[in-house]
Each structure stands twice: as C-alpha cells, then as structure tokens.
Amino acid sequence: MARTLLTADLTAAQREEIRHLLDVAFLGNFSDDDWDHSLGGLHFLVEEQGTIVAHAAVVQRSFLHGDRTWRCGYVEAVAVHPDRRGQGFAADVMDAAEDIIDRSYDVGALSASAAGRGLYVARGWLPWLGRTAVLAPAGLTSTPEDDGSTFVRFLADGPHLDRAGTLACDFRNGDVW
Ligand SMILES: CC(C)(COP(=O)(O)OP(=O)(O)OC[C@H]1O[C@@H](n2cnc3c(N)ncnc32)[C@H](O)[C@@H]1OP(=O)(O)O)[C@@H](O)C(=O)NCCC(=O)NCCS
After folding, report:
1. Which of 80, 103, 139, 159 could cross-link with 54 by S-S, CB 3.0 to 4.6 Å?
2. How far is the CA of 87 from the centre of ligand 1 (A)?
3. pLDDT (tens digit, 9 = 90+) per residue, 81-119?
4. Is the residue at 60 inside a domain?
5. What is the extent of the structural domain holding 123?
C-alpha cells in the first residue's frame, strides 16, 4: 500500500531520495523539467525498510477540449527501482493515484513511456484517439509526437470526453505532455 504526501510535506531528504529514484529508474533520462512537472501536488510512495522503492505523482492541469476546460489529474514520474520491479509496486502507487483522480478531477491523463504503456493499458487507461495539442504562448499548437502516447481515464458516471476529438493541455517548460 502506498503512502500519500503533499509536495509541501516532503522533507528535503525525501525530495532528494525521490529524485534519485527517478534518475535511476529512467536511466538518467529524467530532466530537471520532468522533476519540476512532478511537484506541486500529491506523491504516492512505497517504502521498503525505510527506502523509497516506488513513486508516482498527480498534479492538477487544465485541459481544453470541446468548448470548455477540464480539471485534469495528470500522472507524472511513475517509477519503481530496477531491483524491485515485477512485485506490484507500480500497481500500488497507481491504485493510490487513480483513487485521488477519480475523487478529485474531471479526467485523468498521462503520457506513457514504452516501459509504462503495458501497465496503464492493463489498468484500463484509454489511449487518446484524436489529436493532441498544447495551448502554447503562440496559440493552439498540435503535438503530433504525443498523439500515440497520451492516455486518459474517466469515471464510469463522470463526464466522458470525446476521444476522437482534440485534447489540448496547458503550457509548461520542457515536455508539455
Ligand atoms: C513501468 C514500471 C513503473 C513498472 O514497474 P513494475 O514494478 O514492473 O510494475 P508492477 O509489478 O506493479 O506491475 C503491475 C502490473 O502491470 C503489469 N505490467 C507492468 N509493466 C508492464 C509492461 N511493460 N507491459 C505489460 N504489463 C506490465 C504487470 O504485469 C502487473 O500486472 P499483474 O498485476 O497482473 O501482475 C517500471 O518498469 C519502471 O519504473 N520503468 C522505468 C520508468 C518508466 O518508464 N515509468 C513509466 C513512466 S510513464
């Protein structure tokens, strides 16, 4: 079972430990912008003997779809230590993240890595079928490189976005999705 902590509740040592886990799990491909995207919301942690072995974060983003904005719980920085994979720890942090998303947001979304794709599909996350875009400073800009890796999650009795339509995220530094 995962612990849930606000970014504001993390100690400096916990921040450092999570960042280190992400650097190891993503083989050095986790940038400072990626880290920045993981902050400001909630963190889900699995610890073994006092060591953080799995992490996910959910941050709030504003998405444009149809003629309105949607409050999105966006999943970031899902990682399990390479020595601890295949034991359900990613499932533990995703259980906690999805519970928060289902109770707080209109829609859940994430950008799946090649390694993460199977995990999300197995958990019922749905690929976005239409175009993705970003509300960039210059205006609405397509993000075709993200069309195949964007996944969403809706509550059975909540609002359903038209997955064949265009989904635009808010702008941020680094990878926008
Ligand atoms: C992706 C990652 C978090 C999965 O960690 P893990 O410890 O293997 O995941 P779990 O053991 O909790 O797996 C949970 C379930 O998902 C399934 N699963 C996990 N990864 C999968 C994959 N790549 N393809 C298909 N199914 C997968 C498992 O079989 C398991 O199913 P089960 O409960 O029916 O047995 C881990 O490989 C990782 O840290 N990768 C590097 C960082 C990364 O790419 N993160 C994803 C960012 S989007």
Report:
1. 80
2. 9
3. 999 999 999 999 999 999 999 999 999 999 999 999 999
4. yes
5. 3-170
